[in-house]
Amino acid sequence: MEWAKSLKQRRLELSVMNYVGGVTAVVVAAFAIYRFWTGDFTGGLTNAVIVVLLIITLALGRFPRCEPWALIAFGLVSSVSCILSTMIVGSNGLLWTYLVFWINLLILPRLMAACLNGAIIVLFVLTPDLFSDLLHEVSWAAVAVMFSTFGIVVSSLLRKQRRELAQLATRDPLTDAGNRRLMQHDLQQTASGKGRRRKTATVMVMDLDHFKKLNDEFGHDAGDQVLKQFARDVRDILRTADGFYRMGGEEFVILLRGMNEEEARQALPAVHDRISGSTQGPGGPLELSAGAATLKPGEGWSRWLARADGALYRAKASGRNRLEIAD
Length: 327
Prior knowledge:
alpha+beta; 12 helices; five-stranded mixed β-sheet; Alpha-Beta Plaits; disordered N terminus
């Protein structure tokens, strides 16, 4: 599910759940105490159950693997709580529906939020006792439908803008490869894993040979076109799990997840041969030098990258257009 996979970029949804859920739990707990105090045990018990469910949902959201389910549970708890409160309290509970509509649209997948909001509207419309007369019922239903529709449009635009901002923050605008910030994040995530989470990986640093000469002879526009084509050629041979980044200038990095040192020594020479010379520039095919290093136990990401970078410089010092693999 794309919505669930993108939760790392969806901190807004989790923030809404935590802040709104925390405040709601406190407010509803106060209502529960008041209702028990005044002898309304049914209302007090309902509010107490809502508070318990909210606390469980918020606790579930503290675990990264449970975040998608916590958001869905929070939307369901909020919707059911709104229905129960309105049925018990009466027309005053209708005011809470607008808050629940907006929460659902902010934290849930669009279709799920629309279905929940629509179910609440239909259920309340089919309960005429909640309204003083037919005009009151029709007016509330019309406003509820308009509010939900407007919310769908706004939340969709908001998510689209956030995706675009995330793209700008993590991608190189020229080649569409990951930028240095994304590279550091991915390498750090790979190197910081522990136990079963720590998986083997190999990083390969590449530098286009004599690229400055190409820029000097044919201009920077030609150089930019070559970099864009090179990035496309590299992406064509990578696995979906691999990472590809532009570290700066004509220097690129490939993160080969799940590749140990033995596999790197067997596979990377062929990868280098396939990439080097595959991109045609105005002066002929572009060759590249490369250095690779496999992550060692307990090694930090910066040291890991530095070993690959050192192997790259050995490749360049040994005549270029070759691959060196760090021990």
